[in-house]
Amino acid sequence: MIHKDTSDIEISLLLEAIFQKYGYDFRQYSQAHIRRRLMNRMKMTGFEYISQMQSEVLNDELFASKLLQDLSITVTEMFRDPAFYKSLREKVIPILKTYPFIKIWHAGCATGEEAYSMAILLQEEGLYDRTTIYATDFNQLALNQAKEGIFSNKMIKEYSVNYQLSGGKDSFSSYYTSNYDNVIMNQSLKKNIVWANHNLVTDSVFAEVNLILCRNVLIYFDKDLQNKVQELFNNSLINGGVLCLGSKESLCYTDFQEEYIELDKYQRIYKKRY
Amino acid sequence: MKHEAIVIGVSSGGMSAMKVLFSLLPKDFNIPIIIVQHLNARSDGQWIQLLNNESNLHVKEADEKEAIVAGNIYIAPPNYHLMIEKDKTFSLTIDERFNYARPSIDVLFESAAEAYKNTLIGIVLTGANHDGANGIKRIKEYGGLAIVQDPKTAECAYMPASAIAAITPDYILPLKNIVALLLKIDNPKSESE
């Protein structure tokens, strides 16, 4: 008989409780990641055992919403990985230019920094007016923040460097207005972004799109769940559509490797075969 | 005690320390090594190729979901945290910086301690940050072996000194003696030959 660690049993029961009560399914997330986030919350609340959080999560919605925020990663940047955005400009924009209307799905957009980056890039390439960006996340608080388009100015210097390195054609400061410690993104960037709540684990196809961006989301999922989400992406992309993953993500462990050709191997940009 | 993995945390002064370490470990060294080196988020990983050229073992960036096997030295990719799952595969995350660092040594060490328990060896080398101190403590709690570079011999004494302040290491040694110790652990018979 193999004895599981007690804490593993507690974690699995807690995730089951969250799923049954609230419908958020973390059961196929990376275990090491989930454990670290739960242990942090446990220390903060002064509990001794993970199972104490189980009764709390079932009976206290405020605690449950805190835990959901813990388990949802909203770390992001404008023009994160400039080399990726440069490749997007050079290799994907020419494909998008051939379409009369463009639909883009930004899956797991968190607080929206990368969706705004995409809007900037499309404006500079003269494509934004005929584009709709569906920016989705399961974390409603993050989505609300994304919709506001107000960001702390602490990171702006870094973002400006990213923007320049990514092949930006203008000055980054022309895309926002400074207001005390914050910057407010230009209204014109928001007009074609549709912010929507969508859960990659439990929700299904909602549109047929030309381009999907889902970067640094799948690293949190186990192999089976990665495969399931890749199926969702494959069903949502038109033939010839483009899929962009994070720089450390790939199609290697999925059933869909043969469905795509590599447009940029290093930047993980794939084109769906006809 | 059979040791299944070695985790190493290294920061400022790390490049020359790793060169020494890698050049002294033989091709048939039978314990996988996993390293977090603090570096600039924009680093392109060229230096991994350079280190690979100087090493008898295969030096590579750790990939997500990759299975950990002997013969390899795995290095955390820049701008990601590296974690180890209980099935001895890697996970990468973009969680917030920890101890101002991503990758963070504590994040690797704590997950490695959970996965390998008392079969883990943790090593803290030169650096100017206290990252790794909590992680090495966790490794000790799980019964693993804690080795710290002698701060007097480290290019930057702060990180090994912080580790020594957090726990009583099993060994405090200069770099070359750490390698000798690892060789002895990997092949206990070699002494009598």
Please give the structural blueprint:
The complex is a heterodimer of chains A (274) and B (193).
Chain A: H1 6-22, H2 31-45, H3 50-59, H4 61-71, H5 82-96, E1 102-107, H6 113-124, E2 131-137, H7 140-148, E3 150-152, H8 156-165, E4 176-179, E5 182-185, H9 187-190, E6 193-197, E7 209-214, H10 223-236, E8 237-245, E9 260-264, E10 269-272
Parallel strand pairs in A: 1-2, 1-7, 2-6, 7-8
Antiparallel strand pairs in A: 3-5, 4-5, 8-10, 9-10
Chain B: E1 5-10, H1 14-24, E2 33-37, H2 46-53, E3 58-61, E4 72-75, E5 81-84, E6 90-93, H3 105-116, E7 120-124, H4 133-141, E8 145-149, H5 158-166, E9 171-173, H6 175-186
Parallel strand pairs in B: 1-2, 1-7, 2-4, 3-4, 7-8, 8-9
Antiparallel strand pairs in B: 5-6
Helix pairs in contact in B: 3-4, 4-5
Structure description:
The complex is a heterodimer of chains A (274) and B (193). Chain A has 274 residues and is of the alpha/beta class. Chain A has helices at 6-22, 31-45, 50-59, 61-71, 82-96, 113-124, 140-148, 156-165, 187-190, 223-236; strands spanning 102-107, 131-137, 150-152, 176-179, 182-185, 193-197, 209-214, 237-245, 260-264, 269-272. Chain A folds into two domains: 6-71, no CATH class; 82-272, Rossmann fold, CATH 3.40.50. Chain A has ten helices and ten strands. In chain A, helix 6 links the parallel strand 1 (102-107) and strand 2. With 193 residues, chain B is an alpha/beta fold. Chain B has a single domain (5-191), classed as Rossmann fold (3-Layer(aba) Sandwich), CATH 3.40.50.180. Helix content of chain B is 32%, strand content 21%. Chain B has six helices and nine strands; from the N terminus they run E-H-E-H-E-E-E-E-H-E-H-E-H-E-H. Chain B has helices at 14-24, 46-53, 105-116, 133-141, 158-166, 175-186, and strands at residues 5-10, 33-37, 58-61, 72-75, 81-84, 90-93, 120-124, 145-149, 171-173. The longest helix of chain B has 12 residues, at 105-116. The radius of gyration of chain B is 15 Å and the shape is globular. Chains A and B meet through helix 2 of A and strand 6 and helix 3 of B.
